[in-house]
Amino acid sequence: MGKGRVEAFSDGVIAIIITIMVLELKVPHGGGLQALLPLIPTLLSYLLSFVNVGIYWNNHHHMFQAVKHVRGGVLWANLHLLFWLSLMPFATGWMDENDFAMTPVMVYGFILLMCGFAYYILGRMLIRVHGADSDFAHTLGSDRKATFSVCFYVLAILLAGINPYISVGIYVIVTGIWLVPDRRFERMMK
Question: Which among 11, 17, 74, 99 would be 20 to 30 A from 163, CA to CA?
Answer without folding.
Answer: 17
